[in-house]
Amino acid sequence: MRFRQEEVVLVADIEQMFHQVRVPAEDCDALRFLWWSGDLNDEPAEYQMLVHIFGATSSPCCSNKALRQTADDNEDKYGSEAAETVCRNFYVDDLLKSVQTTDQATALAVKLTAMLKEGGFHLTKFLSNRREVLSALPTQERANPTLNLELDQLPINRTLGLHWEAERDVFCFETVSTSKPATKRGILSTISSLFDPLGFLSPFILPIKVLIQDLWKGRVEWDDEIQGHHLKVWRQWTGSLPRLEDIKIPRCYRNPDISNSCTVQLHVFSDASEYAYSAAAYLRLSDNHRDQAHC
């Protein structure tokens, strides 16, 4: 298995992506709407949207098609790396890319900006874990234009629901509100606010999922206050919520001291009980001098 260490992160956003993609004239009737100027006694005016809008189920698909078409049409001009990045590293309007060097990240940012401009897209709000990359980009195109790169710490950025601390290059979590009532509805509301697409918090959330199972089995109503053992479990769990801020997950798995010629193994384990099932994956890297394992 070949493994590259990719330390430099590049994050950006396409400004109002949907609104940059026009709707074919023959399809505009699907986005027809009525508009009252102010007095509901007046006859409404009838309009059609000429661009794709937020909320329409077709907008992400159509906009992604336009984005990829822009990459295909301009690959010869801006290179295969930029075109591949558009096709593989965009999540709707969010760019998430990691490369090996600051020079590579800077050059890629410039090429991507120019390539997408060919299709009418404005790539902006750049963020990186390397100050050299940000300093090479126009100030107004950074996520924090007022950030002093010589004095200020790099910010914590929310990317696809995850909190990423650029200064230390780690994923982190924020404490959620515990003001919800101790009811089935309140419990579901609280754990739903913990967005964890990569499953980092699964061991922490599992006991509350088991608690919800018990509440369903006990036919507890949505707004009934829970009692006894269930209430004790809930209070212990909410009491530990502030400790989430202590969790820091390094984004890059690999220690820089490990050579590029190391061997890489992926070990996956899974098991189940009467309450739940789970899986854990370990990445094992080794060279002639040391081993390193990450979960």
Word description of this protein:
Strand 11 and strand 12 form a beta hairpin. Helix 5 (184-192) packs antiparallel against helix 6 and helix 6 (202-217) packs antiparallel against helix 7 (228-240). The mean pLDDT is 89. The protein is of the alpha+beta class. It is globular, with a radius of gyration of 24 Å. It is built from 7 helices and 13 strands. The strands form 4 sheets. The chain has a 4-stranded antiparallel beta sheet. The chain has a 4-stranded antiparallel beta sheet with strand order 7-8-9-10, with no helix packed on it. It is 30% helix and 23% strand. It has helices spanning 59-78, 80-88, 102-118, 131-135, 184-192, 202-217, 228-240; strands at 8-14, 32-35, 45-48, 90-91, 94-99, 123-128, 156-159, 162-165, 170-172, 248-250, 263-272, 277-286, 291-294.
